[in-house]
Amino acid sequence: MSTVFLTNVCKQYDSEKNVLNNVTAEIQSGEFFVIVGSSGCGKSTLLRMIAGLISITDGEIKIDDKVVNDLQPKDRNLTMVFQSYALFPFLSVWDNVAFGLKARKNLSQSEIASRVDNALKMVDLEGLKDRKPRELSGGQRQRVALARAVASDAKICLMDEPLSNLDAQLRIKMRQEIYALQRKLGLTLIYVTHDQVEAMTMADHIMVLHDSHVQQIGTPAEIYKKPANEFVASFFGVPPINILPAVKISGKKINVNNDFQMQIKQQVPVDNFKVGIRPNEVMIEAADELEANASIRTIEFLGDEKIVYAQMNNNNIEVAAIVPSDSQFKAFDTIKVSAGDNVLLFDNDGINITKNAEELVNA
């Protein structure tokens, strides 16, 4: 078992406000747990607190039912992969992987050799074991860091934005390799990233951090389909969800940004609120100036689809819509924007007030 419990974990530097406030989570043995958020939200700080590299101000961290608040990193039975790879430039690939094992003083030379050789085989670096880090590509250096984590035989692995220095195509490949390796070894993997695509494609559960607080913990599907608030909804999805002000007219009929009216699936408990519409749910059609409620600003061609960015007539709000690649829209066209009823609703504090299917049936 390698379960990690975080209970009301806080971090404060000097007299500043808390970098992290009351972070509580349960990370199950063998799961891929991703901590995601924008720069400066405290995600790397939290990872380093779990590792023991940074002390905690308040709260409790437990690993396998043992409180580790005051334990040194070497006593927590975990390993860490850093963004910068943290390789020794003067050592070979083999010696970089072996370095931490040799430092333990309790492993035989044969045991060290066996672990290192197996780890290098697992990440497909056997043929490069005698090279120095400067002779490797970015992806190969990252594999060395992974091999070092594998060789340690720790059941908990922490990764701090390990793919951020790689190009887009290599990131995709390394995502797949890390996920496959985690599944093969049964590691409890805690992974920090600012990339929502990495989070959605790899995680069993995601923790979303913002403004020093946990905004939501859930599966990728829960995070995307049932975001706790406006921030979570906006953070996930490319392009981001469109958030528009709305006013209740009567029943389930609403006025969106004073540009168009639509029917939604539920009664709204407040008169003024916000509507979240994913770009793939936005409908646009050509319209003359009298009928139009928006005008196209830019268009991005993505192969099998286009993203149309348009400015609504009121409040200068920009909306994004995904359309087929063969559509004939062009910049500065006037258009009519509308949407179906598959939307999210947020109160003026940004809290999700959308009812789920069961609530709608029982309403």
Automatic annotation (TrEMBL):
Give the highest taxon in the source lineage: Bacteria
Q: Which UniProt keywords apply?
A: ATP-binding, Cell membrane, Membrane, Nucleotide-binding, Translocase, Transport
Q: Where does the record place the ABC transporter domain?
A: 4-236
Q: Which GO terms describe its molecular function?
A: ABC-type transporter activity; ATP binding; ATP hydrolysis activity
Q: Which GO terms describe its cellular component?
A: ATP-binding cassette (ABC) transporter complex, substrate-binding subunit-containing
Q: Which Pfam families match?
A: ABC_tran (PF00005)
Xref: InterPro entries: AAA+_ATPase, ABC_transporter-like_ATP-bd, ABC_transporter-like_CS, ABC_transpr_MalK/UgpC-like, Mo/tungstate-bd_C_term_dom, NA-bd_OB-fold, P-loop_NTPase
**PANTHER family per record:** MALTODEXTRIN IMPORT ATP-BINDING PROTEIN MSMX (PTHR43875), TREHALOSE IMPORT ATP-BINDING PROTEIN SUGC (PTHR43875:SF15)
Q: How is this protein named in the record? A: Glycerol-3-phosphate-transporting ATPase
Q: Which organism is it from?
A: Companilactobacillus mindensis DSM 14500
